[in-house]
Design goal:
Layout lengths: L2 H13 L4 H6 L22 E5 L2 H7 L4 E4 L5 H7 L4 E5 L18 H15 L4 E5 L6 H8 L4 E4 L2 H8 L5 E3 L13 E2 L8 E6 L1 H6 L6 H5 L4 E5 L19 E4 L2 H9 L1 E7 L6 H12 L5 E4 L13 E3 L2 H13 L1 H18 L2 H12 L11 E7 L5 H9 L6 E8 L17 E7 L5 H11 L4 E4 L5 E2 L3 H8 L7 E3 L4 E4 L4 E5 L7 E3 L1 H5 L11 E3 H7 L9 H6 L9 E3 L5 E5 L12 H5 L2 E3 L10
Parallel strand pairs: 1-2, 1-3, 3-4, 4-5, 5-6, 7-22, 8-9, 8-11, 9-10, 11-12, 12-13, 14-15, 14-17, 15-16, 19-24, 20-25
Antiparallel strand pairs: 17-23, 18-25, 19-23, 20-21, 21-26, 22-24
């Protein structure tokens, strides 16, 4: 094929539109809610990345630095003038821009141009890496191109071993997720618009492997819904599976798939599938990132990245029993989903992968995984000072400081034993008793040094992952002010946990207008935010109480992003002596809008 014909083929392939008649016959599913816009604008690093990558890597990398997609027409100018730090070429059939179709494993003009990019990068001292994101079954497709790179990274250990046997320098680089798009957050206006109980992404598998997937029939009573995200199927295909037809939503775009996962309670996956092992791994991590448990019918190798993320089942009965347990205990389902989410967000993001790449090739990667956070705790009770320090020390987060505002007329700072030193510093400031709580909090804010500030009360119950989980959530978006709904309350007198009926849902973004009108509010003991934003509004310092609501409903915050976080790792503590609380409402009055949770504190602290 000559050069002109090659350009013409790619132009026709990627400018082609489906006819209205074909679209009408395609079984699409469109979510009944608007697709969420990206909630993140800030890039995770200053890297300048030239890229020939597919859609998945494009979506993953565009938040990690300044991304320059390379095309046959622009690559020379970008390499010479864009001041690139790195060039990433992924094993893909065509790029996210619609170029380079099959050129990585077919010898043509476009293939030669990719090799020219690699040679030019070497001359300009720009490190170029080949990121083999495909399964080992594609070894013969990409081995020739990979051999031209000094640095090769493979998602599949078998492919890494195969390329090493060809004397290539290869590093293992497992699949990853992009928190900015793979996350459980929804818009508060549509938070309960619909629900999917059990999601299965595999309509095509079901057509081809129906007998091997008979378990799906037994899952139907648990609320099964089926989608297909790999390709497109026409309406007549619905009639091939009459028993499943009512439960098939249809084919979805990747954006629609992400929306389905945001509204799903659990996902099911099978060892029996047409997907390669590596594609299964990418999909499993992405699914778990939406904070829902992935029930896997099959067994995994000990080295499989999914091992601590999905829940394995050796038999159909085990899967059904697990789904039955989730119906009896939604809290257990939420715990399983939360733990898998934490595993993915803390170890398997594109930021983690880029750090590995940059470390291997010897370039700077200025992503800050653990920005400094400030915990601000006001108290007037000297006997609770050790508890204030204890809540701080137990936070499993490596870069933190504690500022205690001791609301007292004492002139001397009280001594506290076992105060942490070094990086995790503790400071105690004295605020005279005539200063109200808002003023005390503002003292802490102004004195703090953290990127984010957390208001932590002196007597409430905080889990050791309270701060770490919050910081993982903040990877997904540029958040200005955050907090948790008032959900769980422990009464000292009863020694029981109660559930508060609340209007505010967890894991959602909240328009400013809904806070100023008092429709929603965060629990004051969980309030926090970006320090630079909090300093522009501060807490009202003239309220005897209610300073938290005063901040949330302050004017001038219309452009701020407010986010409701998950319900774990915080329990409001209500002591038997009401006079020890700033909020003087009686126990009986509090319980009017509550009911017994019949759970232990330990069930809520993960």
């Amino acid at each position: 094929m000559n050069k002109s014909a090659s350009h013409k083929m790619q132009s026709l392939l990627h400018s082609r539109t489906e006819s209205p008649a074909l679209l009408d016959r395609t079984c699409y599913w469109v979510p009944p809610v608007p697709l969420m816009e990206d909630q993140k604008r800030t890039l995770n690093s200053s890297l300048r990345i030239g890229a020939i990558v597919g859609n998945r890597l494009y979506e993953g990398l565009r938040f990690e630095g300044v991304l320059f997609p390379l095309t046959p027409d622009n690559w020379e100018k970008i390499l010479h003038y864009a001041n690139l730090d790195i060039i990433i070429i992924e094993s893909c059939r065509y790029s996210a821009t619609g170029h380079w179709y099959l050129s990585q494993f077919i010898q043509n003009e476009q293939h030669d141009k990719i090799l020219e990019i690699v040679k030019t990068a070497e001359k300009l001292s720009i490190p170029a890496i080949f990121w083999h994101t495909q399964d080992h079954i594609y070894h013969n497709h990409y081995k020739s191109l990979a051999s031209h790179f000094d640095f090769i990274f493979c998602a599949d250990p078998r492919e890494a071993e195969a390329l090493e046997s060809m004397h290539a320098k290869v590093e293992l680089l497992p699949p990853a997720v992009q928190p900015a798009i793979h996350n459980p957050f929804r818009d508060i206006e549509h938070v309960d618009a619909f629900r999917i109980k059990v999601l299965y992404d595999g309509w095509t598998d079901l057509i081809r492997l129906e007998e091997k997937l008979r378990l799906l029939r037994d899952i139907i009573p648990f609320g099964l819904n089926i989608i297909e995200s790999r390709g497109r199927l026409l309406d007549p295909k619905l009639n091939e599976l009459p028993d499943y037809k009512p439960y098939i939503l249809g084919c979805v775009t990747q954006a629609a798939r992400r929306t389905a996962l945001k509204y799903a309670e659990a996902a099911i996956a099978f060892e029996e599938t047409l997907l390669s092992t590596t594609k299964q791994q990418w999909r499993a991590l992405e699914t778990a990132a939406f904070r829902l448990p992935v029930l896997y019918k099959g067994r995994l190798a000990e080295s499989d990245i999914r091992k601590n993320i999905v829940i394995e089942h050796g038999s159909d009965d085990e899967v059904i029993e697990h789904l039955s347990e989730y119906e009896r205990s939604p809290l257990q389902r939420e715990k399983d989903g939360h733990l898998a989410w934490r595993e993915v967000f803390s170890k398997h993001t594109f930021s983690h992968r880029l750090r590995s790449i940059c470390s291997k090739i010897g370039i700077t990667h200025d992503w800050v995984e653990f920005p400094l956070i400030s915990i601000i705790t006001p108290t007037y009770r000297e006997e609770l000072l050790p508890r204030c320090v204890e809540n701080f020390v137990k936070q499993d987060y490596p870069n933190k400081e504690l500022i205690i505002i001791f609301n007292s007329n004492e002139k001397d700072v009280p001594e506290i034993q076992e105060v942490s030193t070094g990086k995790n510093t503790v400071r105690i400031l004295i605020a005279p008793q005539e200063m109200f709580l808002g003023a005390c909090l503002n003292m802490g804010l102004i004195s703090s040094k953290g990127v984010y500030c957390f208001k932590v009360d002196d007597d409430d119950i905080y889990g050791h992952n309270y701060v770490p989980d919050t910081m993982l959530h903040l990877c997904a978006m540029d958040c200005d002010i955050f907090g948790k709904p008032f959900k769980y309350c422990y009464f000292e007198r009863d020694k029981q946990v109660y559930i508060q009926r609340t209007k505010l849902a967890e894991l959602c973004t909240i328009p400013y207008d809904n806070l100023t009108c008092g429709k929603y509010s965060f629990h004051g003991a969980t309030l926090g935010g970006r320090r630079e934003k909090l300093l522009t509004c501060l807490f009202p310092d003239y309220y005897i109480a209610g300073e938290d609501n005063g901040l949330q409903q302050a004017g001038g915050l219309k452009e701020y992003r407010f986010v409701s976080l998950d319900l774990f790792n915080f329990i409001y503590y209500r002591g038997a002596n009401i006079n020890e609380h700033t909020w003087k409402v009686s126990t009986e009055q509090l319980k009017k809008n509550m009911y017994n949770a019949y759970v232990n504190q330990e069930d809520l602290i993960l």
